[in-house]
Amino acid sequence: MPTYNEAGNLPGMADALMALPLPGLRLLVVDDSSPDGTGDIAERYAERHGRDRMSVLHRAGKEGLGRAYADGMARAVTDGARYVLQMDADGSHPVGKVPALLGTALSTGAAVTIGSRYVQGGTLSDAWGAHRRLLSRWANAYAGTILGTRVRDITGGFNLWREDALRAIDLASVDSAGYSFQVEMKYRAVRRGFGVMEVPIHFEDRTIGESKMNLMVQLESVTMPWKLRARARR
Ligand SMILES: Nc1nc2c(ncn2[C@@H]2O[C@H](COP(=O)(O)OP(=O)(O)OP(=O)(O)O)[C@@H](O)[C@H]2O)c(=O)[nH]1
Ligand SMILES: [Mg+2]
């Protein structure tokens, strides 16, 4: 779970995850020295829940969620995780769906299980107006068409990865700094022949704290699918 200024969200997320009926679940928070003290709060919660169940990776400064995710996933695999779930801290991704993602991965053998807004049963926050819905749909279709994948929610950030898929993807060489990370990772997995399943989720809007989306991140998302396609052709 990457965090940057999520002091208002992290406590609730950590408590909810630790209360799930999944005794093997470990939480790794990857904090980029948040000025609001999220890293210290994460340490306190790790103490409370037990260091064997929760830990914190502190990074020196804000490098974007893609870098934070790549680092955190690499750490989780090194530490022996069999499955790694990526999940935002802002409350957009439903904690209650975590067991369903794992259940689907285990029962189907999928290497990548996507918490998907865009399969039958997937829903978006009522707070999303027509413009935002269209933009998200369009971003998905844009990346999917350029890359020729049939993944329905290729831009989503609530995904469960089997450990061998993460090893095969070579996290150290992932390019994306921002949220095109989601697209790049799935494309890499599909290209390597790993099976993908999508489980419907309800996507909630963040209610506490601020979005870290900015123009640079958006530009990267526009150019990245072309880069990935060109590289694949080479
Ligand atoms: N460690 C770290 N985490 C980050 C960074 N940027 C964003 N995050 C975290 O990544 C998650 C997603 O960030 P958001 O700002 O919600 O971005 P988003 O979900 O694409 O955008 P919204 O739809 O506006 O919420 C949150 O948990 C953030 O705290 C970063 O540079 N470093
Ligand atoms: Mg968000």
Automatic annotation (TrEMBL):
- By its UniProt entry, which SUPFAM superfamilies does this protein fall under? Nucleotide-diphospho-sugar transferases (SSF53448)
Keywords of the record: Glycosyltransferase, Transferase
Which Gene3D superfamilies does this chain map to?
Answer: Spore Coat Polysaccharide Biosynthesis Protein SpsA, Chain A (3.90.550.10)
Q: Family per UniProt?
A: Belongs to the glycosyltransferase 2 family.
Q: Where is the signal peptide?
A: none
Tell me the superkingdom of the source: Bacteria
What CDD domains does the database record attribute to this sequence? DPM1_like
**Annotated Glycosyltransferase 2-like domain residues:** 1-168
According to UniProt, the name of this protein is Polyprenol monophosphomannose synthase
Pfam families listed in its UniProt record: Glycos_transf_2
